[in-house]
Amino acid sequence: MKKRSETQVALQNLTAKMNVLSAAAGIVLFCYMAFATVFGPYKTTFVHLALFALFSFMILFFDSMAGEQNSKKKIAWDLLLLLASVTPLIYFVSDFERLINLWGSTYLSTTDLLLGSVFVVVCIEASRRQSSMLGALAILACLYMLFGNFLPGVFGHAGMDFGRFIYTVVYTSEGLFGTGLKVAATYLFMFMVLGSVLRVSKTGDFMIDIANSALGARIGGAAKGAMAASAGLGTIVGSSIGNVVATGTFTIPLMKSTGFQPHVAAAVETNTSEGAQLVPPILGASAFIMVQVTGISYDIVVLAAIIPAALYYLSLYSVVHIEALRHGIKGLPADKIPSFTEKFTAGWHLLVAPIALFCFLIIGSYTVTFASLAAIFIALACGLARNNTRFGFRKLVKFLSEGLSQSAQITALVISIGLIQASIVSTGLGPRLTDIILGVSDGSLLMTAGLTVVAATILGMGMPTPITYLLLAMFAAPALVECGASILAAHLFLFYFAIKSGSTPPVALVAVVAAAIAEANWFRTAITAFTHSLPGFAVAFMFLYEPGLLFQGGYSVIFFVFVKAIIAVIAITYSIQGWCGGWISLFSRVVLASAGLAIFHENLYANLLGFAAFGSIFLFQYIQKSATFSK
Is residue 368 within 8 Å of 184, Cβ to Cβ? Predict the structure, then answer.
């Protein structure tokens, strides 16, 4: 008993030390990234990314060793992985001049091959710990590069020896030091830190108070306030799960207290937290990833997201309103509705950082990393400026450590995308994969889009939105473009379903987190969230065919498409909820759903038929209601 107690004390001491080391590594990483943002990467991009990966892996494995249910065996394994990640990266940094000037695999030394192999294994294991799906894909990518020459038909390639494999995935920009790691270092890191600073300064609490003061008195006001708060905070936080945790811990109990069923409250928070990543101008950091992947300018991406985001939240607002009518849920009690003037006066300064970020990006045309870094320091200064939002050093370090740990986890995920990228580029699989998808869909844009939705659901199991989007951009975007979709529409479509994969069964990780807060059944929550999202799904398919929804085309075209999209979203929402100015029959619901889909169609005659069907249901409901009142 005494021996076990001593062991527990030793493990607790080790946990405390590992937490300190993790925080120290995180602070050093932030300081370096701030330096690199202002003065440029140290030496070269290769060295810059190696240093970023080095400290990220240190944080990752220090955190793992600080876990609550650790054993000596697990700690030893984590320590081995830490050394196995640090050693190659230090070697890469120290000998970078030779390594970046290698002309091919024949110039690799035995040490290059050995440490390169170790680094590949560590990256795969780090990814596997975060997502079994991505870990499996990374292993398959490696096996395909090495043994794909034995495969028959279109999947076969010329072959690749082990030396060329290591050279490609470790020592070129097509592998582990490619797009995935660049995205993590350039876009995701600073936004994770910014999200931590906004949380420590209580920006989320401020947005919840403002949303409830504006919408709390309305029918179903608790849920409508949750929508506004999640949209405001989530566009910057960039994580559906992070947004659920940040706002849902307050909004879900509030929705339940006013009468919403637990699974409905969790579903509302799930959908609003996911939808926040569609909200301009930040789009949860994914707007910048899309810019890098597509080459389309940032302002065009932001402009294109406005109407789809508005339609998504219109559908959710309608769903919440009808849900509240169904169960007789009123607004928040008067004593729970904050004073807008009081709350805004107390917290207006917390909006300075988000506004400054937008101005730096749009007006100043600064880089994403510089704008984010400036917003971090502005948020810190604003938080410290007034007593009600002031925080201590320990609290700041705690929140920063949480953000840096999340960044390390995402880096562990995203770095293995380099292996998948290498397998697609170096083997020529990309064009052949497009041909395979087009062969299955027979060149149909609708069928191809449907296949990509299935792919998004599978690839998105348990993975953050940016990683899912990057994978889909590699696999599916070329096929959508080949079928006739514009590059912008194709990538926004993929991004949309990368977001929604977080609440789509069977994994539905975002719904699981929300359900846990609501003390609800996670599967029922996921199904409810999925059902509530169906009108929004239709919007995504619509902008593949109607570029006007992305602000492409003349003003008259954009206006017409926007108006008909609003009517279509309302029709489908009323069909799903069974309400159209009053409760409706199953037949009327079918007619409304059909009308909505017809209005979504790009054919004008189908639109007119849909308008007629929608109008007839409304007219029938009005006549029926008038007859009831006259009696």
Answer: no
Under a CB-based contact definition with an 8 Å cutoff, are residues 412 and 130 in contact? yes
Helix axes 189-200 and 352-362, enclosed angle (nearest 10): 160
Q: Is 579 helix (H, G, I), strand (E, B) or coil?
A: strand
Q: What is the pTM of this model?
A: 0.83
Phi, psi of 365 (to 5 degrees): 55, 35
Per-residue model confidence as pLDDT tens digits over 149-180: 888 877 888 888 999 999 999 998 888 998 88
Phi, psi dihedrals of residue 332, rounded to the nearest 5°? -65, 150
Segment holding 93, helix H or strand E:
helix 72-94
Q: How many CA atoms lie within 13 A of 555 on its CB side?
A: 0
Q: Where do we find the tokens 């300075």?
A: 352
DSSP track, 302-323: HHHHHHHHHHHHHHHHHHHHHH
End-to-end CA distance of the chain: 81
Strand-pair partners of 583: 579
Q: Is 365 exposed, middle or buried (0-12, 13-18, 19+ CB in 10 A)?
A: exposed
Alpha helices, H only, 442-521 = 445-459, 465-475, 477-482, 487-500, 509-518
- Report the distance separating Cα 395 and Cα 386, nearest Å: 16
CA distances for 500 relative to 66, 83, 301, angstroms: 32, 37, 19
Q: Which two tokens stand for residue 313?
A: 């939240």
Convert 267-278 into a string of H (helix), E (strand) and C (coil).
HHHHHHHHHHHH
CA atoms within 13 A on the CB side of 503: 34
Contact present, 496 and 307 (Cβ < 8 Å): no
In degrees and rounded to multiples of 5, residue 347 shows phi and psi of: -130, 10
Give the position of tokens 């944080």.
59
What DSSP string runs through 357-416? HHHHHHTS---HHHHHHHHHHHHHHHHHHSGGG---HHHHHHHHHHHHHHHHHHHHHHHT
Does residue 551 sit in helix, strand or coil? coil
Give the max Cα distance, the chain: 93
pLDDT of amino acid 86: 95
Sign of the dihedral defined by the CA atoms of residues 255, 258, 262, 268, in that order: negative
Q: Please say whether the beta carbons of 330 and 321 come within 8 A.
A: no
Q: What residues have CB less than 8 Å from 41, skipping those under 6 apart?
A: 47, 48
pLDDT tens digits, one per residue of 194-243? 888 888 888 888 888 888 898 888 888 888 988 888 887 777 766 777 77
Instruction: Look up tokens 């306030």; give the residue.
Output: 225
At 49, list the tokens: 């990314």
Cβ-count burial 111-134 (b if 16+ within 10 Å, e if not): ebbebbbbbbebbbbbbbbbbebb
Query: Which residues make beta-bridge pairs with 108?
Result: none
**Out of 20-29, 211-220, 576-585, which region has the weakest mean confidence (pLDDT)?**
576-585
Q: Token pair for residue 466? A: 């940016």
H or E element in which residue 75 lies: helix 72-94
CB 555 within 8 A of CB 575: no
Determine the Cα–Cα distance for residues 465 and 450; give it in Å rounded to an integer. Answer: 19
State the pLDDT confidence band at 376, using cuts at 50, 70 and 90.
very high
Task: Give 626: exposed, middle or buried? Use CB within 10 Å, 0-12, 13-18, 19+.
Answer: exposed
For helices 445-459 and 132-147, the axis angle rounded to 10 degrees is 110
**Which value, in Å, is the radius of gyration of the alpha carbons in the chain?**
26
